[in-house]
Structure prediction request, 631 residues.
Amino acid sequence: MKSRFHVISSMIVVAIALNLAGCAASQARKDARNPQKAAVERFVKIRAPWSGTLAANGHFYYIDLKDGVQQLHKRTGQPGEGVALTDFADGASGYTVSDDGKWIVITASTGGDEQLDLYLMDTKTETIKPLFFDRETVSGSVVWRRDSKAFAYRANKDVKSDFNIYIYDLADGSNTKVWDKPGYWYPIDFSADGRKLLAGKYVSASESYAWEIMLPDNGARPLMQRPDKFAFFPVGYDNNDSFLYAITDYQSDRRALQRIEVNGSYAINVLPQFKDHDIDNAVMNQKRDIMAVTVNADGYGELHLYSLPSFKPLDTPDIPRGLVRNLAFQGSTLTYSLTNTITPGVIYTWNVDQPGSKPVPMTTADTQNLDLATFSLPELIHYQSDDGMEVPAFLFLPPGYDRGEQIPFIISYHGGPEGQYRPGLSRHFLYFMSRGFGVLAPNVRGSSGYGTAYLEADNYKNRMLSVQDGVAAAKWLIDNGYSRPKMIGAYGGSYGGFMTMAVITQAPHLFGAACNVVGIVNFKTFLERTKAYRRKLREAEYGPLSDPEFLESISPIYLVDRIQTPVLIAHGKNDPRVPVYEAEQLYDEMKKRGQDAELLIFDDEGHGFRKEANRIVFYTRLADFFEKHLQ
Prediction:
């Protein structure tokens, strides 16, 4: 009988699901280290709203769970008090508020299939109408024109492998295609007069471009056109549209914030002091005289504020170490969220013009009465792979752990592959640590956050080098006395699912159990069956379908006979990224050989676990699985 599971469709929730880790211990150890004796359900139900926006109409909007599904909410009273504005069966995926606060465009899909539709809300009446509802088209990346009378968005209406750019006018309901070139295009920013539109083209994590579209004739010109490839993510125009700001690794191994003349003749790194770190994000206020910047410092997210155009540093609020995200401005009021590994995300507002003031919490977190202070923050460690590559990783130890004691561990491999494990709250890590398990979260080569060379070090023919790094993580745990062979579990989702299957086929003697969630096992069938708009993006990373011999050489499906561990396979039936056939063929191949495999297909899910009820069922099953096999 098939179980129903929820697959997380948004990138912010995917990051929560893909950080799962845990391992088993003896019953005595679990009892000794589980003073709260909490069930998986309580950890999964730790809740914190996210994606907050303070609008010009004075309302505070955010995403929160209603009946276990994420919906758009509006705060009407004190922090924590709010009302749900949407009631989609499968939840709201995201939203964008117009500058005047009168309109909201909401994105939602069905059953985790990520075929996002657009809905328009009048914030005065709070009525919602379907705007573009097409189950065969993905729409998104909404950018409002500064007069709030129109917005741009991307959609693959005509050619499913390409995203074109459209502008929807609220006054007459017209919907005009303004850019129809092949590729994955998306809007970024309108000029002040609405006659120019910045657009980006995404090729891969290390290659992207920007163009300026002239409206209404739709003429265009490339910005920063160079013969060499680089990542180029525009932030937006400056206050007089003569310059634009962009996060780019142009002329650097790190992603820097650069100011670029609109004609593209030169670029200046405006924050050279961060030359050893990647810039994560940058957001300007409506006047474009203040910018908030987050810096990726060894996985942590640090907030910095600047006056524009001088980039004179401004005071920042007092923020504990963690991940600062969710940057947005309303005038001089900054909205941001903060989380770390023992702190659920809280959304704050802070007035830049009142530097001595304290941040105002706009939301509260439900910790299910768990004492999260019981747990310690992770230790950032570095280990060497077989070829000498230094790999960063976060080490989590359970309460009461004695150095030198060998305990069960889970190695959690992140997705992407261009993702990065970052020390935010992971409910699953907390639960497994409460049961006496350790967790190691490595950022193997190919991860973002450590420079372009590291990001590209696993591309195409170097794919198995990242697997080498994954195996080296288990060796490090053993060599340093934290665990022993067969006491280590492998876990990962999406690309992390591939990593899980790859490490247990490359080093079967090290691992005692494995869980593959929405993972790739056959790169050829994966590329053939993934959605058309994703195929080129993934071929740029993994290798083209025109090289089937190489794709076969890196596919774990052809090494199933090496597997010595029980494997739990979980997938969403509606997954558009890694189709469910990847799970089905793995299960079939293992069962043919009489190997220990469990298969969970979730009829109402896609690429991750999204609904709270489904997550509870899945993580309960996973906890039982690891506790049974990791002793």
About this structure: The CA atoms of residues 454 and 568 lie 31 Å apart. The radius of gyration is 24 Å. The mean pLDDT is 90.
